[in-house]
Amino acid sequence: MRIIISGGGTGGHIFPAVAIANELRRRLPDTEILFVGANGRMEMTRVPEAGYKIVGLDISGLQRRLTPQNLLFPVRVLRAVRKAGKLLEQFRPDAVVGVGGYASAPVLLAATSRAIPALIQEQNSYAGLVNKLLGRRVGRICVAYEGMEKFFPKERIVVTGNPVRTEIASGNRAEALRFFGLDPNKKTLLVIGGSLGARTLNLATAAALARLREAGVQLLWQTGKLYFPEAQKQAEPYKQENLQALEFIQRMDLAYAAADVVVSRAGALSVSELCLTGKASILVPSPNVAEDHQTKNALALVSKGAAVLITDEHAQARLYDEALRLLADPERQSQLSARVRELARPDATATIVDELLRLIKN
């Protein structure tokens, strides 16, 4: 069987795509899988690191103001659709999966115009623009949240949860502590602002380094590429106390295993990973997303007593007061952990692959 998986732009699109590919390979080892991404975006490095071939399209999103790039946008889309069409004719896939992001649009357009079975995987509670536009053209739409019929045809929706790499919850704590050089007798805080980093979390964390040292807390701080040089300088004086600034954490399974408490944005993938790993967490939703969907993602946990919510505007003043209180309260950590595990959908990836295979068969 041959499958094309298209999309990317952020880890929230890329890692679910890789999870789907891994499940296909596990179930049907002879399956040929080709990824299609956008040139210059992070999928062009992350997907090969996961062991898959990827082809890039010259495609980008619309700018919010009138620019020469926007004037050229229709031309770029047309060229990308033509290239996607040629890829489909050469690769001859049995089906195409779109996970959101710029690159999924031309591939899904080219596939549906050729009557190739197509499936969309929507991670968020508020559907992305590409997925909303193409939802009526595809055969199946796998979603993580109820109530998505306001974006998609109801009869094509299947609530599956988000695909999460199964190994994310299999990290061994002892191995994790050795991997990061951490002290097993100290509490560990994990701060993740998404694959591209988060300015608010980085500013708040930099300001709290001395407090963390005084409290005897260790830190794994994923800064993102843009913020890393400055964060590395800020963390350098605290290296001996295991306050570590890291551009990107490849072994997230070990990072979760090492952590007692997690501070995170509330992207769909992050929320799904927290549920699967059962980690006590403080969520700081990004305000810079469509329809404030990260707050909706966070409230899905907070309403069940499964996480703590702090708004972005209050993060610099309140985040580390709350983090240190939670780190010092093992009973509350256990309560949050137990409740968040109840919300996990460990079979999400398998269910999505079931839907894909059913679509191909039909």
TrEMBL record:
Residues 188-345 form the Glycosyl transferase family 28 C-terminal domain. SUPFAM superfamilies: UDP-Glycosyltransferase/glycogen phosphorylase. Pathway: Cell wall biogenesis; peptidoglycan biosynthesis. Keywords: Cell cycle, Cell division, Cell membrane, Cell shape, Cell wall biogenesis/degradation, Glycosyltransferase, Membrane, Peptidoglycan synthesis, Transferase. Its EC number is 2.4.1.227. It catalyses: di-trans,octa-cis-undecaprenyl diphospho-N-acetyl-alpha-D-muramoyl-L-alanyl-D-glutamyl-meso-2,6-diaminopimeloyl-D-alanyl-D-alanine + UDP-N-acetyl-alpha-D-glucosamine = di-trans,octa-cis-undecaprenyl diphospho-[N-acetyl-alpha-D-glucosaminyl-(1->4)]-N-acetyl-alpha-D-muramoyl-L-alanyl-D-glutamyl-meso-2,6-diaminopimeloyl-D-alanyl-D-alanine + UDP + H(+). It is found in: Cell membrane. UDP-N-acetyl-alpha-D-glucosamine binds at residues 10-12, 124, 165, 195, 249, 268-273, 294. It holds the Pfam family Glyco_transf_28. GO terms for cellular component: plasma membrane. GO terms for biological process: carbohydrate metabolic process; cell division; cell wall organization; peptidoglycan biosynthetic process; regulation of cell shape. Its main location: membrane. GO terms for molecular function: UDP-N-acetyl-D-glucosamine:N-acetylmuramoyl-L-alanyl-D-glutamyl-meso-2,6-diaminopimelyl-D-alanyl-D-alanine-diphosphoundecaprenol 4-beta-N-acetylglucosaminlytransferase activity; undecaprenyldiphospho-muramoylpentapeptide beta-N-acetylglucosaminyltransferase activity. It is an enzyme of class 2 (transferase). Residues 3-141 form the Glycosyltransferase family 28 N-terminal domain. Cell wall formation. Catalyzes the transfer of a GlcNAc subunit on undecaprenyl-pyrophosphoryl-MurNAc-pentapeptide (lipid intermediate I) to form undecaprenyl-pyrophosphoryl-MurNAc-(pentapeptide)GlcNAc (lipid intermediate II). HAMAP family: MurG (MF_00033). NCBIfam families: murG. This is UDP-N-acetylglucosamine--N-acetylmuramyl-(pentapeptide) pyrophosphoryl-undecaprenol N-acetylglucosamine transferase. It comes from Hymenobacter glacialis.
